[in-house]
Design a protein that fits this description.
The chain is an alpha/beta fold. The protein folds into two domains: 188 residues, Rossmann fold; 158 residues, Rossmann fold. It has 16 helices and twelve strands. The strands form two sheets. The chain has a six-stranded parallel beta sheet, with helices on both faces. A six-stranded parallel beta sheet has the order 9-8-7-10-11-12, with helices on both faces. Helix 1 links the parallel strand 1 and strand 2.
C-alpha cells in the first residue's frame, strides 16, 4: 500500500482535488490517503470540503489578514515540512497554480518525495499574467515527477520544457467530475434573492471579476460596460457576486450599485455558484476555473483578459477573450444576447476539458507509476 498525501489550500484546488481524493479512497488495497489543508483561503475552502464531505487529516490554518505572498510561502513550507516528516508519504499530490501548490511541491522535493501535479502544463508565457499563478505552475513543473495535464495542448507545453513524455498523462480536468456531482436542476439557493431571480422568466448574465492584474482602470472599464449592458437590456437580470477584497468593492459598488437590474451579492459558496452558472445564459468573467466549467454547462463565456492559460476553449469556440476595453466587452456581450445564431454556435461548441472521468484516469496513472497495475492508460480526447 502506498501513502498519498494530497495538499490543498484554496477553493479551486480543493474542488479539483476532491474527486481524486474520493477516487483514491475507493482503492484501499493500493492506497492510503492523507489530506492536508493549508487553509490559504479559509472560508471558501471550508464550503467545498462540506460539499464533498472531506475532513482534512491536517488543517494548518495558516491564513491571516493582509498576508503577503512571502509570508504565506514561509508559513506554508514550515508547517508542511513538519507534516511530511511525520507522515513520510510515498507521493504528494498538488493541483494547479496556487502558492500552496508550488510550496507543497517544493516541500516534498526537499524530502525526496515524488510529486504529482494535477492540472499541469497550462501556460500564458507571461510571468505577470496571471500573477503569481503563471510562475507557480512553471516552478511546480520543475519539481514534479508525474504530470497530469488536462489537455493535449498542456501536454505539449510540458514536452517543450524537456519534461519526459513518459511522465505525462493527459487526464482531462477534474473540475468536470466535480460539476457532475454538484449541479442539481432543483437546487435551492441559500441566498433567497437567487431563488427569486432564477424563477423569473428573464435571461441571466452572471459576472465575476477579481484578478489583481485587472484592478484599477481595467476593472472600471469592465464595470462601465456592464452598466451600459444593463441599461440596454432592462428585461435581463445581471448578477454579480462581488469579491470580498476591498480594492474590488471600491470599484464595483459606485459604478454598478444603483442599476435596477444588477444584483450585487456576497460571494457564493461552491454549490450556489455552479448551480447559478447552470441557470445563467451568459457568463462574463476573469476567472480561470469558470473558463473550464462554463463550457461543460453549455454556457458562452466572455473572458475579461487579454491572454489565457486555457487556450483550448478559445480554439473550440466556447470562450472568447474580450480584454478589458469597455467597447469590446459591450459589443461582444450585446451580440450574444441578440444574435441567436452566434449564441447557439458558442453554446453548442465542444467542451475541450473533460468527460467526468478525470479522477479515474489520474488514479490509474498513479497506479502505473508505482507498478500496481498493467492496465493501459487511454488519454483524454475531446469528443
Amino acid at each position: 500500500m502506498k501513502k498519498i498525501a494530497v495538499i490543498f489550500g484554496t477553493r479551486p484546488d480543493t474542488i479539483k482535488l476532491a474527486p481524486i481524493i474520493l477516487e483514491l479512497k475507493k482503492h484501499q488495497k493500493d492506497f492510503s490517503v492523507v489530506t492536508i489543508a493549508t487553509a490559504q483561503h479559509r472560508q471558501m475552502l471550508d464550503q467545498v470540503l462540506d460539499v464533498f464531505k472531506i475532513v482534512p487529516d491536517y488543517d494548518l490554518n495558516i491564513m491571516q489578514a493582509k498576508q503577503t505572498l512571502a509570508s504565506l510561502t514561509q508559513k506554508i513550507i514550515t508547517a508542511l515540512d513538519e507534516v511530511l516528516e511525520k507522515e513520510k508519504p510515498d507521493m504528494v499530490l498538488v493541483q494547479g497554480d496556487t502558492t500552496t501548490t508550488f510550496v507543497g511541491g517544493l516541500a516534498a522535493f526537499y524530502r525526496n518525495i515524488p510529486v504529482g501535479h494535477v492540472e499541469a502544463g497550462l501556460r500564458t508565457h507571461d510571468k505577470s499574467n496571471p500573477f503569481p499563478e503563471e510562475i507557480n505552475r512553471r516552478l511546480t513543473s520543475c519539481v514534479a515527477d508525474i504530470h497530469f495535464p488536462p489537455t493535449a495542448t498542456a501536454a505539449k507545453a510540458l514536452q517543450k520544457e524537456n519534461i519526459a513524455k513518459g511522465s505525462i498523462f493527459v487526464t482531462g480536468n477534474s473540475v468536470i467530475d466535480a460539476l457532475q456531482i454538484a449541479v442539481n436542476q432543483n437546487h435551492l439557493f441559500s441566498l433567497p434573492i437567487l431563488n427569486v431571480l432564477t424563477a423569473q422568466k428573464r435571461k441571466i448574465v452572471l459576472l465575476t471579476m477579481h484578478r489583481r492584474e485587472n484592478w484599477g482602470a481595467p476593472m472600471k472599464g469592465a464595470c462601465e460596460a456592464v452598466k451600459d449592458l444593463a441599461k440596454k437590456f432592462p428585461d435581463m437580470n445581471f448578477i454579480f457576486p462581488v469579491h470580498l477584497n476591498p480594492v474590488v468593492r471600491e470599484i464595483v459598488y459606485p459604478i454598478l450599485g444603483k442599476s435596477a437590474n444588477i444584483s450585487l451579492i456576497e460571494p457564493l459558496d461552491y454549490l450556489d455558484f455552479v448551480n447559478l452558472m447552470a441557470k445563467s445564459d451568459l457568463i462574463i468573467t476573469d476567472s480561470g476555473g469558470v473558463q473550464e466549467e462554463g463550457p461543460s454547462l453549455g454556457r458562452p463565456i466572455l473572458v475579461l483578459r487579454n491572454v489565457t492559460e486555457r487556450p483550448e476553449a478559445v480554439q473550440y469556440g466556447t470562450v472568447k477573450l474580450v480584454g478589458l476595453e469597455k467597447k469590446n466587452i459591450f459589443s461582444a456581450a450585446a451580440k450574444l444576447l441578440t444574435d441567436k445564431k452566434a449564441y447557439r454556435t458558442m453554446a453548442a461548441a465542444t467542451n475541450p476539458y473533460g468527460d467526468g472521468t478525470t479522477a479515474k484516469r489520474t488514479v490509474l496513472a498513479i497506479q502505473r507509476y508505482f507498478g500496481l497495475t498493467k492496465k493501459k492508460f487511454i488519454p483524454f480526447t475531446p469528443r
